Amino acid sequence: MMIRNTNIKIGHSLFKLLPPKILVVSLAGLLFGNIACSNVFLPTPYIPMGYYDCIEVNPGQLVDLYFNTQETTPWEKSLVEGAYNSKVFIFKDTIVDSQTLRDSDKGWIWVDIVRCKVINQHYLNYFKAGDHIDIVGINKGYSEDGEPGLIFQDCVVMEAGTIKLPLEADGGLIFYGY
């Protein structure tokens, strides 16, 4: 039995099978398709372990606890600070607007009159007005730099719904590692 030399050039035969216009359009779609998409894939950010037990709160409600319309005595102020400072809170499904990102170049993001220092600052470049985000961070209480509002530290910003926080009691196990 004789075996013939059948060196088939796959690329050359593929080019013959597909009309050149289809090939060009397909390659252009592969190369430039991601640029045209409005959504950018952001990997899930690292969330510190203590953040999974955060408290979901509306930013306006938290601000009202600190800045109510009644006169606040120093004693009442210390009660509020003792109850809510150093706690981890999450603001869910916050809509980004022009005020939200006004200090993003400095690593801060605003929600109502809450200023959050973001640890994954590079994510801020991907959000624009109209996007929905979740912000989780540690409440540090009243701003001490003369700017009215509250300060949050070590905040993580992510697309809304990326991670289900706070973790439910029967939420399963979390394993860290690669």
Question: How does this structure look, described?
Answer:
- A six-stranded mixed beta sheet has the order 1-2-5-6-4-3.
- It folds into two domains: 30 residues, no CATH class; 111 residues, OB fold (Dihydrolipoamide Acetyltransferase, E2P), CATH 2.40.50.
- β5 and β6 form a beta hairpin.
- It is 25% helix and 22% strand.
- The longest helix is centred in the first third of the chain and has 17 residues.
- The chain starts with 9 loop residues before the first helix and ends in a 19-residue tail after the last strand.
- The protein is built from four helices and six strands.
- The protein is an alpha/beta fold and 178 residues long.
Question: How is this structure best summarized?
Answer:
With 178 residues, this protein is an alpha/beta fold.
Please specify the SSE layout and strand pairing:
Blueprint: H1 10-17, H2 20-36, E1 55-56, H3 59-66, H4 74-84, E2 88-95, E3 108-111, E4 114-118, E5 132-142, E6 150-159
Parallel strand pairs: 1-2, 4-6
Antiparallel strand pairs: 2-5, 3-4, 5-6
Contiguous low-pLDDT stretches (5 residues minimum) are: 33-38
| CATH class category of the largest domain | Mainly Beta
Give the number of domains: 2
SSE order, one letter for each helix or strand? HHEHHEEEEE
**Integer average pLDDT:** 80
Q: Report the total helices.
A: 4
Helix content: 10-25%
CATH topology-level name of the largest domain? OB fold (Dihydrolipoamide Acetyltransferase, E2P)
Radius of gyration: 26 Å
Give me the CATH architecture of the largest domain, please: Beta Barrel
Biggest sheet layout: 6 strands, mixed
Strand order of the largest sheet: 1-2-5-6-4-3
Please state roughly what percent of the residues sit in beta strands, choosing from under 5%, 5-15%, 15-25%, 25-35%, 35-45% or over 45%.
Answer: 15-25%
What structural class is derived from the secondary structure elements?
alpha/beta
C-alpha end-to-end distance: 54 Å
Give the assembly state of these chains: single chain
